[in-house]
Amino acid sequence: MAKGFHEKPFDPGTLTKLRIFELYAQEWIPVFVSSPEPKFDKVEIFDFFSGPGKDSAGALGSPLRILTQLRTYHQRGMAGWNKVRITVHLYDRDADKIDTLKRTLADENWSIPGVNIDCQALAFRDALRANEQVLSGRGAAKLLIIDQYGVDEVTDEVFKKLVAFQTSDFIFFLSSSTLYRFRDHPAIKQKIEKPDDSYDVHRAAVDYYRKLVPPGAEYFLGRFSIRKRSNIYGLIFGSRHPLGIHKFLQVAWANDEIAGEANFDIERENISPGEGLLNLDVMRPNKQREFESELSAAIIAGKMTTEADVLRFCIEAGMTNRHSAPVLKELKRKGVIDLDFQVPDIKRLKAPRAIQLIQ
Fold first, then answer.
1. What is the pLDDT of residues 193-229, one digit of tens each?
2. Is there a contact between 232 and 260 (Cβ–Cβ < 8 Å)?
3. What's the alpha-carbon Rg for the chain, to the nearest Å?
């Protein structure tokens, strides 16, 4: 991303990225404000590279998209809204952009009851240090948006900090130049069949980041690749909770019904949107067919005894709970299993329903 990219209209790739940020915020916010008895009394949302709030054509940037979602949920009268203190932290190292954003936020349309706005000119590292106590603590639900401008602010050291933060989800942006450097990294070069193939580098980058998660820690990472002209960019998502990664996967599949991980044909299957939904096996994406085959085999082998097992299998494969439904339906129809649900419920991880294998 060039420094002045807000000074012109956002391109389609940037709009895809912003849509994913907004859709995840849309999924994330009600988890903490919809219940009459919220789990947390504080919600902290961080946008570390907020920019001026809009592009030259008036399209909303990430800070105003986040606030749009908060305004919508306030207007809906969510049950726990008045029991939660919500703070939106909007930072950017460019003081001029922050001044522009502050002028925009002065409009009463962006004044949302129950939402406090912290808007400051701070560089990413400085903002992390200033909020270290909040980010490291367990007393608040936190969402971090790190839309770094074509530079590698999320170093290995910073990534390890992000993973260590309690009760936090994050999404950060990887520039094409950063991904290009990943091609020659010894830890990932051997994983790429074609070192010059940018389609696969983002996948390998996520595998690299997984190795930075402390051994034995349960942590979930997701990815989404974005093509902008001839360059490939990437989003990396992280969460300690299965519900967090599942919501990200839902957003990813909403933006890519073929593979759930890119705004282009990353699998090179030449299947157009809509065709993958046809009831023709030859038109179904390989990723889904392979997933269904592997899930079916695991269930028949007795490795999936509850819906929680199936949910975790889905998450590890980069699929949502609904992708398992055809397999469960078919195995039940054939008399291979018995169960009393059609789609595994992510909210039942602690009290999952059983899957009985019929001998």
1. 444 555 667 777 888 899 999 999 999 999 998 888 7
2. no
3. 21
Q: Report yes or no on 41 lying in a domain.
A: yes
Clarify whether residues 228 and 148 are in a common domain: yes
pLDDT level of residue 166 (50, 70, 90 thresholds)? very high
* Whole-number pLDDT of residue 228: 81
Q: Which domain holds residue 291?
A: 280-357
Is 275 contained in some domain? Answer: no
Is 265 within the bounds of a domain?
no
The reply to whether 269 falls in a domain is: no
- pLDDT, tens digit, for every residue of 252-279? 999 988 778 878 765 555 555 554 444 4
For 275-303, letters b (16+ CB in 10 Å) and e give ebeeeeeeebbebbeebbeebbeebeeee
Whether the CB-CB separation of 53 and 10 falls below 8 Å is answered with: no
Instruction: Name the token pair of 293.
Output: 């085959």
Identify the helix (H) or strand (E) that includes residue 308: helix 307-316
